[in-house]
Design goal:
The complex is a heterodimer of chains A (about 325) and B (about 325). Chain A has 15 helices and 4 strands. By secondary structure, chain A is mainly α. Chain A has a domain of about 210 residues. In chain A, the strands form 2 sheets. Chain A has a two-stranded antiparallel ribbon. Chain B is mostly helical. Chain B has one domain: ABC transporter involved in vitamin B12 uptake, BtuC (Orthogonal Bundle), CATH 1.10.3470. Chain B contains 14 helices and 4 strands. In chain B, strand 2 and strand 3 form a beta hairpin. In chain B, helix 6 runs antiparallel to helix 11. The chains are: A mainly alpha (about 325), B mainly alpha (about 325).
């Protein structure tokens, strides 16, 4: 009972949309952009920003289905390993099996989806907690990538394959279009479809969702499969950008992806989150990396910052949530 | 009458069967069975030199897995331990090289281990942030911090007295193996027979019931993480002193090997069940498999895939067994 008047009181003082996590985050992003631009003249150039967009696509593609998964209260730690496995199989099937490249791409996407499907089927049918299942497959998929590749890299792909990773389409990095389409589709699905609303229902109260007749298991199976598929797509974009495949590709992606999603206001406890938040989160993470790099901080130190951001943003979000609930 | 027969320990054949079917016994059988199978294929595998190398080189994983098992029994997880072991080894080695008394260098690793892990325990227990988020963040903080501070340089010229792993007790028992056995036995007894040890199971099994029994859940979790940090410190010392150099980087995917040992050792990932005896056997088994791959001409690059399959199979078996027990 006491929650309703509190919320109304807050509404009267400040417009509701200003209080939203995403809006606040976007404001911080804007301030950071201007600040970094003032500190370094190379930062706020269209070239640099577009290039950052190019670099962020691989993580961004995975962060979208991860948002779905975390909204349901799940997690997928195996995404980085799926990227490694798909990259290796793309190169391996092309070079060793002699698949034509388009078929090899299709094959690696299929493997990504299958890897995600395996996660999903064990999580839903055997009821293994997502955290443990995806830690197990984090080891398994990376192990398969290492075993299949035997630490050999594949390079020398045909020229056309590098288009997505390196060229521009209408003045914008080609892979950014992919990300853009994926963002719009995910946002519409999450916000405007029964499927999307089911995700929130599962995250808020899975038992209630089940008793309401929602297809909980099927929906979960779909999102974990989707996560694998997008990791596969991300692997293809990554290989196209860096022109080679190695079994250590995608190591640590889970950190960037989960940090972006959580920073974007999706609750790690499930039930809350938006695609727009994740998009701002992705931008923040990439901005952080780029800004730190431009001020002379090395790559290894940036993961220190991202780790700190992950913990702090969860702390802030959970304490805000607790205050809202009046606990 | 039937109830009494069931309770009669030792005489009941069903009870004896149950002991044989326990995870610990299965693992012990697997360790010996694998040794015989690979030995028949390639007798050099059974050479005393190889077997002791396998034990010596991997005792630190078993020691760390003891702490990890406690964490998992309490219903949490820690993926930062591999990075922490790298950091602690570097701290200890740096101190030793720069002329600190050896004992101080050793203690520093233990103390730093406890501090970092207890800190994580506090965030997890009192601020109620899921362990996976805290330890994932800490993993990257430690990993990135270590490389950017040391630049990945190797620590060499370590004083001879620093090398704990070289000590042989009574001239035959290497210290790492001794420590592995000692830690396992002490931890197993403590978890089984002390009130604070039982509290870990209570918190992991049913947090609400534990609370009603007057067990402080946050305090138990902080205690578990602090102990886990102590074992990580001990593991780091074994890791740091087994070679003549310390690579100032994080041993890649060490946390996965440690988690595999705990889970395969029978620690239920749902919390509340498991013993550290199992995890030590499992650590030995994993090391043995890695070594066996070489002897049967399988590329060592497959080892992590084997680990993944092992975790997966154990976890699924554990859940199915629980479900059958609940259904029976």
């Amino acid at each position: 009972m006491s929650e309703i008047p509190l919320a109304q009181a807050a509404k009267r003082v400040i417009p509701w949309w200003l209080l939203r996590h995403e809006t606040m985050l976007a404001l911080i992003l804007l301030i950071a952009l201007i600040g970094l631009g003032g500190m370094n003249s190379r930062f706020l150039t269209l070239d640099n920003l577009l290039n950052q967009g190019r670099l962020t696509t691989e993580v961004g593609l995975i962060a979208l289905p991860m948002t779905f998964i975390i909204i349901t209260g799940g997690i997928d730690l195996s995404v980085g390993s799926i990227v490694g496995l798909c990259a290796i199989l793309l190169g391996y099937s092309w070079k060793t099996f002699g698949f034509p490249l388009p078929l090899a791409i299709g094959f690696s996407l299929l493997v990504g989806a299958a890897a995600g499907f395996l996660n999903g089927i064990v999580i839903t049918k055997v009821k293994v907690p997502p955290l443990i299942m995806t830690i197990a497959t984090l080891a398994l998929y990376r192990g398969l990538a290492e075993g299949i590749s035997q630490a050999r890299s594949v390079r020398g792909y045909p020229e056309w394959f590098y288009f997505v990773g390196q060229e521009n389409l209408l003045g914008v990095p080609a892979q950014l279009w992919l990300l853009l389409i994926a963002i719009v589709v995910s946002a519409v699905v999450l916000d405007r479809t029964t499927f999307g609303r089911t995700l929130y229902a599962i995250g808020n109260n899975e038992t209630a969702a089940r008793f309401s007749g929602l297809p909980v298991d099927r929906v979960k199976l779909i999102i974990y499969t989707l996560s694998g598929l997008m990791a596969g797509l991300s692997a293809c974009v990554l290989v196209s950008r860096v022109t080679t495949t190695r079994s250590d590709m995608g190591i640590g992606y889970e950190l960037d992806v989960i940090a972006a999603v959580v920073l974007g206001g999706t609750s790690i406890f499930g039930g809350v989150g938006t695609i727009w938040g994740t998009v701002v989160g992705i931008a923040m993470i990439q901005l952080l990396k780029n800004g730190l790099a431009l001020t002379g901080v090395k790559g290894d130190a940036t993961i220190v910052v991202i780790g700190t951001v992950l913990i702090l943003s969860t702390l802030v979000a959970s304490s805000l949530q607790r205050r809202r609930e009046g606990v | 009458m039937t109830a009494m027969t069931l309770a009669g320990v030792g005489t009941d054949p069903r009870r004896r069967l149950k002991v044989l079917a326990s995870q610990e016994a299965l693992l012990a059988i697997a360790v010996i069975g694998l040794a015989i199978a690979v030995g028949l294929n390639n007798p050099r595998f059974l050479a005393a030199r190889n077997l002791s190398d396998v034990l010596l080189g991997n005792a630190y994983i078993a020691v760390a897995a003891v702490g990890m098992s406690m964490v998992i029994v309490s219903g949490n997880i820690d993926i930062s331990v591999g990075a922490l072991i790298g950091v602690l080894a570097t701290i200890s080695g740096t101190l030793a090289v720069n002329g600190a008394p050896i004992v101080v260098a050793w203690l520093a690793a233990l103390v730093a281990g406890v501090v970092v892990m207890a800190f994580q325990g506090v965030i997890i227990a009192y601020l109620r942030i899921p362990a996976i988020v805290v330890t994932l963040g800490m993993l990257s903080i430690l990993k990135g911090g270590l490389i950017s501070v040391t630049g990945g340089k190797w620590i060499t010229d370590l004083p001879d007295s620093f090398h704990l792993a070289d000590i042989e007790l009574f001239g035959l028992l290497p210290f790492p193996v001794f420590l592995m056995i000692l830690v396992t036995i002490l931890a197993a007894l403590w978890m089984r027979y002390s009130a604070s040890g039982r509290a870990i199971y209570a918190v992991g099994g049913n947090a609400e019931a534990a609370r009603l029994c007057g067990i402080s859940q946050p305090r138990t979790i902080v205690m578990v993480f602090a102990l886990h940090g102590l074992f990580a410190g001990a593991a780091a010392l074994l890791y740091a002193t087994q070679l003549r150099v310390i690579q100032s980087t994080v041993p890649p995917n060490l946390e996965l090997t440690i988690i595999t040992a705990s889970v395969v050792g029978g620690v239920s990932i749902l919390g509340g069940v498991g013993t550290v005896v199992g995890s030590t056997f499992a650590a030995v088994l994993i090391a043995e498999i890695a070594s066996a791959l070489v002897f049967i001409d399988v590329s060592p690059y497959w080892i992590r895939a084997v680990q993944g399959v092992l975790i997966l199979v154990t976890v699924i078996a554990d859940i199915l067994r629980r479900r059958r027990m609940a259904g029976a």
